[in-house]
Predict the structure.
Amino acid sequence: MPAPSDLLIRRARLRRGPPTPVDIAIRNGVVEAIGKELRPPAKVEIDAAGGLVTESFVNPHLHLDKVYTAAMLDGQAMQDYHGQDMGKAMAAIERAAGVKQRYDEGWMDENVRRAVALAARYGTTHLRAFADVDTKAQLVGARALLRARQEWRGRVEIQVVAFPQDGVVREPGAADLVRQALELGADVVGGIPWIEYTDVDAQTHVDAMFDLAVEFDRDVSMLVDDAGDAGLRTLEMMAVRAIRSGWRGRALAHHARAMALYPKPYLQKVAAMMRQAGMGIVTDPHTGPLHARVRELLEEGVLVCLGQDDISDAYYPFGRNNPLEVAFLASHLLWMTSRDDIDRLYDMITVDAARAIGLQDHRLAVGAQANLVVLEAPDVLEALREHAAPRHVIREGVVASSTG
Ligand SMILES: [Zn+2]
């Protein structure tokens, strides 16, 4: 008699599988077999009861140091950021920086824990989290997120981004703090070059952060072209530098809301550069009035995924850290409502988001690591409609959380 599997998921419906449910056997954290009525002996059994089982959710963009800070602010930053045409986006970020005068480990650890607990509940097993690193925040946020990374290891994998939100040229000292955060163990080099005063400074910002990434051998995540100005060029700068540094597949762009205003030929040129750089983009259409041009980027073969971005902070009043809710909102805001669109949105919170943050093997297949969600819904349409918490979340073959 063969040794029992560690976990058997019975009666699982697969996204592109046969119409009737199958069983999934897992051993040593890896999917061992998928098939009809496998029913091998197993130490733990779950009955999916015909519910959809897919790869777990991946959130490639969350400002985790700022969650639940909205109450500390007067709301003006949000009005500026959400204002028509996003002409005041820079002013919004300057206002929002006020909260960093009050950064303190006491409240931050609690807020972070509350947000990551939601991630776990809603099926996110991998999360790329930004910590502001500048002369106001110092390393308070970075240290808090590094503690959270340790605390949640095995349940939610947190990649910490050292993020100079207020610039590196206009904020002397910020680049050195990014370096210190990397020395402390931050996983990813951040950046926000469009916040600088001039294009020359923006290029300096891009170069300074890529230099650190090369020195420390880290991936790069930058918030680019995030205001209502068709003349912003930092997405392009980032792609060019990724190509020149050989950082293929290791640079990820975020936001790029100005893309909504780019002339079409320029958009096509930048998309070609992004493909060349192997550079994906995270869009969060619920947190701002302009959106990256998702449909056209997909047509151009660019990797696009969705992120939560904010939870109750200066920029967004809501947020439950629920990727299905993010995809549901994106479906409306981007008018992606056909069956194919909805399938695509589901990829954008699972396999595509995983590729974007460098997870090599995030797929439901024999031999792949078992990071899965077991949903009540039988298909992706219903999953988005209900955006309910998964019945079970499986992290490396172990049931990490269950509801109901
Ligand atoms: Zn953001």
Summary: The chain has 13 helices and 16 strands. The pocket of zinc ion is lined by residues 61, 63, 223, 254-255, 309 (CB under 6 Å). The chain has a mean pLDDT of 95. The CA atoms of residues 137 and 168 lie 14 Å apart.
